[in-house]
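Progress note, project year one: complex with flavin-adenine dinucleotide.
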Amino acid sequence: MRARRADIVVVGAGVVGACAALALARLGAEVMVLERRAPGAKAPTAGVLGEDLRTLALSPASIALLEELGVDEADWAAAGCAYSAMEVWDAEGTGSLRFTAQEVGVSELGRLVPHHPLAFALWQTLALEGITCITGASVTGMEARGSRTTVRLDDGSEVEAALVVAADGGESRVRDLAGIELSVEDTGQRAMATLAELERPHGDTAWQRFLPTGPLAFLPLPDRHGRHRVSVVWSLDTERAIAIEALDDAGFAAALGTAMEGRFGAVLAVDRRVGFPLRQSHAETYRAPGVVLVGDAAHVLHPLAGQGMNLGLQDVRVLRDELRRPLSGLGRNLLGDPDLLYHYERIRRGENAIMLRTMDALKRLFAAEDPGVRWLRNEGLRWVGDAGVVKRILLRQAMGLDSTAGEPA
Ligand SMILES: Cc1cc2nc3c(=O)[nH]c(=O)nc-3n(C[C@H](O)[C@H](O)[C@H](O)COP(=O)(O)OP(=O)(O)OC[C@H]3O[C@@H](n4cnc5c(N)ncnc54)[C@H](O)[C@@H]3O)c2cc1C
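Model obtained:
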């Protein structure tokens, strides 16, 4: 069987891969997408109350990229919720910090959106743009020959391209096939995601309580049938997490209400729990001959700041900017040259490494039980809250906005 040909093959049509395919096709590249899931397949994280339990936090910079790529908001935005404030507080003290959109002169800090409607909207956009997607087939092999790389699928077919974009998630097969090492830090924690209905409204605010056992987040979703709904992400030591995951709905709802200090009244209903081990990982390099990594294939971080997807979409933005020149000239056969991808790796690996270290430091800081450290972190939260300039800088960075210019970075 002869291999199909393209300039660029994107492996993985999650949100990051689909955006990469759209962005590179817009530059005039012939792009093909390979995805192991079949179209219409139920999301593995689907809840029983009709929502995908995997919720993504999109910063204004990520939303701007989706708009630029022509992903119709009407297809995904209604499932999500804009949030205009974010509040974090320490369970072991009185320190708390509240950020509001008003402080930085914008109407929202970002949107929380269930994964499935956004991924589905992206698949529709890929089809509208006429980008070839081979679905229901997994990549199992890869071989570089000169300036071209051949990717093998489990149905025996092959696709050949100048560049393979690995967007196949945290367990990336392409990364392994390219021989790229991964540094992994087991956080000793497990996260569970679910959806909860609350007695009191969430106030369009993303709430996060730092408990010594790990952070608990209530992220706003649109009310439905008069019920106030939040997406829950609860990180705990593995042993405790497994015990709590095993509780029945009533027991889990009670534990959740207590862990949130009853701040939203009773927890009226909960969906099934999707648990996953919390590992932070970072690829040693983002490039190999004929291959480049983006999104979770390159970096997986603790969900406590909700930045996983935003970092992946920043990778896409920078990769597109770096490939603009070769795609506009005669450089298509050079697309897989690692030298060409040097700047992409330098910019993105550096920024992602800072975010990974920050998550690690935050997790350790809030897990510390030493009274001195507890006092310091409560004072620190208060100090940041009072220091308007520091707060604004932190906020703009979390939103993916340049801290001085006010435009998407
Ligand atoms: C179970 C789970 C729950 C999560 N919950 C949250 C949450 O609540 N909040 C949050 O902010 N983040 C959450 N995350 C993290 C967040 O989903 C990721 O940061 C983000 O989705 C990364 O996007 P991606 O496109 O890089 O990878 P993914 O979304 O993992 O997409 C990878 C794609 O590649 C495909 N693929 C994989 N292997 C192959 C192969 N060999 N051949 C072809 N295709 C392949 C997969 O089918 C998938 O479509 C969660 C992650 C998981 C796994």
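Residues 11-17, 34-37, 45, 54-57, 138-139, 167-169, 173, 193, 233, 274, 276, 295-296, 303, 306, 308-309, 312 surround flavin-adenine dinucleotide (CB under 6 Å).
The first strand starts at residue 4 and ends at 5.
No further modelling is planned for this target in the current period.
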